[in-house]
Structure formats: C-alpha cells, structure tokens
Design goal:
The strands form three sheets. Strands 3, 4, 5, 8 and 9 form a five-stranded antiparallel sheet that branches. A three-stranded antiparallel sheet has the order 1-11-6, with no helix packed on it. It has a three-stranded mixed sheet with strand order 2-10-7, with no helix packed on it. Helix content is 15%, strand content 28%. The protein is α+β, with helices and mostly antiparallel strands and 194 residues long. It has one domain (3-40, 47-191). A hairpin with an 8-residue loop joins strand 3 (85-93) and strand 4.
C-alpha cells in the first residue's frame, strides 16, 4: 500500500476517533456495487424496482475536498464539522477524488438525506470498523428517465455543497420514468481499513 493511501486511511481513522467525523457512519464504502438489471417493461407493466445493491470504495474514494479538510483538522488545528446529514446522489459520468462527475438532473431527481446517528447506521461490531445503512435509501420516483447511473456520491448538502465520497457502481443501470430506485438496507457498507 502506498504512502498516500496509508495517510488517507490514517486520516479517516483518526478523524473518526477524535472528531466523530461520521457520527456512527464509519468511514468509506466496501464491496462493489451491484445493480440488478430489471427486464424491460412490457406495455402496461408496472415500473421496475431497481435495487442498488452493495457498493465498494477505498480511501481513494475520498474526494480532495474531504482529504484537505481531514488533514487540516488533524494536523493544522483547523476545525472540521462532520455533516449531520449525508446526502446520497447518483451520477451518470465518472467522478474521482478531484472531479465531481455528472450528477443526475431533472425528472424529479433529488439526493436522499440520511442522518448521521445510531438509528440510521448499524453499530460497529467486534472491532471490524464497518457500518452500513439500517434502512433502505429510497430516491424519488423518476418522472422522466435519469439516464444511466454509473456512480454514487455522498455530499454534505441536498443541492450543491461538497462531494465527499464518490465511487463507481459495479453495474451501471439505466433508470427510466416510473422506476423505483433504492439502496436496500445494508447495501451501503462503510469500512475503515481492516
């Protein structure tokens, strides 16, 4: 593991320990995302339920914005306040630690807020450094197609704000008008290096 990744992992772990950075969220995402692909809808058929399943990330999934905030907080005595609500978004073009990608727009799309807290994120057990969403994360029903979702991101605001984590979905998924789009309970699993 290279030095940058070790620093990223240390920074995240230390921020969690000293500043309750994720207030029970736990860190970065583990295990690649799989998005079940529903068969095309027949005429008059009900909308497909698109379950966005477990997602994977590593320290490199932290954006430059979060990395800078953590380094400044840990080593430069600059306060960092963790979001009280994390906003989960979907992207149709690649994001990276330095590029935001292209977030879905239109068709009733909105980021989904998930509060930081013990009731919304599973308890870390046996020192495994892992937590996940307790309940499903349900997006609004699209009133028009959202395009092909290729990535997800976590933000600190319902619109604009800072992108803090981004990661590719293992399987891209075309989201059509009327689809039900969600990450089931336990699908977003966040882990600090084990």
């Amino acid at each position: 593991m290279n030095l940058i990744n070790r620093i990223r992992q240390f920074s995240l772990a230390a921020a969690l320990a000293f500043a309750s950075l994720f207030s029970g969220l736990g860190g970065v995402v583990t295990a690649p995302a799989t998005v079940p692909v529903a068969a095309p809808l027949a005429a008059g058929a009900a909308a497909a339920a698109l379950a966005l399943a477990p997602v994977s990330a590593e320290a490199a999934s932290l954006t430059d914005s979060l990395e800078t905030s953590l380094i400044n907080h840990l080593f430069r005595a600059t306060a960092y306040t963790a979001p009280s609500t994390w906003y989960v978004g979907l992207l149709t073009a690649a994001c990276s630690d330095s590029a935001a990608g292209t977030e879905v727009t239109g068709g009733s799309y909105a980021r989904v807020g998930v509060a930081s807290g013990t009731g919304t994120w599973a308890a870390v057990s046996a020192g495994n450094g892992t937590t996940s969403n307790v309940s499903a994360i349900n997006f609004p029903t699209p009133s028009a197609g959202w395009g092909t979702a290729t990535h997800f991101a976590l933000y600190d605001a319902p619109t604009a704000g800072n992108q803090l984590v981004c990661q590719a979905l293992t399987t891209s998924k075309t989201i059509n008008s009327g689809d039900t789009v969600s990450f089931p309970a336990s699908a977003l699993t966040f882990q600090i290096d084990n």
